Amino acid sequence: MTAYDDLMAYQRQTEALGQVAGRLGWDQETMMPEGAAEQRAEEMAAMEAVLHARRTDGRIGDWLGQIDDKSLGEVEAANIRLIRRDYERNLRVPGDLAEALAGLASRAQRTWAQARASEDVGAYLPVLEEMVRLKREQASALADGGDLYDALLDDFEPKTSGAEVARIFDAMRPRLVALRDKVMGSAQPAPLDGEFDEQKQMRLARKLSKLFGYDMRHGRLDKAVHPFSSGSGLDVRITTRTAPRDPFNCLYSTIHETGHAAYEQNIAPEHLLTPLGQGVSLGVHESQSRIYENQLGRSRAFTGYLFGQMKDAFGDFGVADEETFFRIVNRLDKGHIRTEADEVQYNLHVMLRFDLERDVIAGKLEVTDLEEAWNARFEKDFGYAVDKPSNGLLQDVHWSVGLWGYFPTYSLGNVYAGCLFEALKLARPQLEDELAAGDLSGATGWLREAVQMHGGLMKPRDLIARASGQAPSEGPLLAYLDEKFG
Ligand code: ZN
């Protein structure tokens, strides 16, 4: 056994335990009896403690020191690069700070949920201030003299800086605002009206999920309050939700999560339970879910197919034809909620959060002024006021659980999806005919080869550049949105 083999055997056990911890989380959101919550919190904390101890174990440093990087092939080198990166990051953060952050995250999430239910920002601010204090401490430990926000962003999207994100957003904002105003200024179709049987919604969701390539032998679809995807390799599970008057919520959440799950399922089997056996970054992950959901799922061609499927499932539901159906699926609304936003306005919601959180981490904006700053910015960007905190500062869970530097990865995912879709269309001239027939295999097969199978082998931007044949930029996404909505 060489040092590399010893390290990888150790790492494999850590990865396996990480999957177990993830499955506890899945169970908590889907199957767990209500009365088990307290015990589950202790079980999950115990798993986290075991994982943290393994990830900072001194033997990792010893093995890394014994490995001669020059003797490694491409896969081995990528494994070592990721293990070293995680090990060094974990060692930089003092154990008591990591523990304090984990403890505060679960307390803050409960406080946030109560504050949101009672529309009480004041009850939330003290715990949020404490979170910001700890996150800035963590960022200082990680940044090693560099930019604090970049250090946090690096956790989710390695090798991307706040300045680079700001440059992309500055280029996108005026184009998106102009497009939004143009669409809003013209006549839009009325939303769906009527009741849609929830069991039938789930049946159709299951069918769509398989159509988009989700392998049910290695996965399952359940209901949860918030849709998510969980797990890697041979066991990747997704959830969705149903609302009787809004079938699109169920169907498009399912397609979105199928994109995340297909990415994990399609990683080459040789990477199973190694550092390469997971999606390479949140931005790349979101590029897969968004291209499944939007560029493919909300395309004119595919909505034509879906219109027929919905008529089969629900009978006549009051929409005259395919063209009207396409426009209903893609209508723009005057809403406050990021997760419900359409393709044109979604990134404006992300930009608002990015600018505010960057200022908070830089110490330029106090937590006590955050709500006022949010509301002023929202009115400026969207042209109407925030009517209640649950439609403003209290709408997202992220900041309460310590996810600072996370929001921009949603928009980077959209930007990457734009690049990939441009390349996909060039590679498959027959794409529209396939989508119109409900045949996703060509598109998802291309994404599997170009992106998904590689797992963590390449760095995120290199992967997108190689797959799309160009350095990632906002240009293709903006051109796609202009063509579709303009
Ligand atoms: Zn997603």
Structural summary, described in words:
By secondary structure, this protein is mostly helical. It folds into two domains: 144 residues, no CATH class; 324 residues, Neurolysin, domain 3. It is built from 20 helices and three strands. The protein has a three-stranded mixed sheet with strand order 1-3-2. A hairpin with a 6-residue loop joins strand 2 and strand 3. It binds zinc ion. The site of zinc ion has 4 residues, from helix 10 and helix 11.
Draw up the topology in text:
Elements: H1 3-30, H2 37-55, H3 58-66, H4 74-92, H5 95-117, H6 121-143, H7 148-156, H8 162-184, H9 198-211, E1 221-223, E2 229-230, E3 237-240, H10 247-265, H11 282-296, H12 300-314, H13 322-329, H14 346-361, H15 370-382, H16 408-427, H17 431-436, H18 441-450, H19 460-468, H20 475-485
Parallel strand pairs: 1-3
Antiparallel strand pairs: 2-3
Bound molecules: zinc ion.
What portion of residues is helical?
55-70%
Shape assignment: globular
Number of helices: 20
Q: What portion of residues belong to β-strands?
A: under 5%
**Largest sheet composition:** 3 strands, mixed
Here the CATH topology of the largest domain equals Neurolysin, domain 3
Rg over CA atoms, rounded to whole Å, is 23 Å
What is the chain-wise order of helices and strands? HHHHHHHHHEEEHHHHHHHHHHH
How many structural units, i.e. domains?
Answer: 2
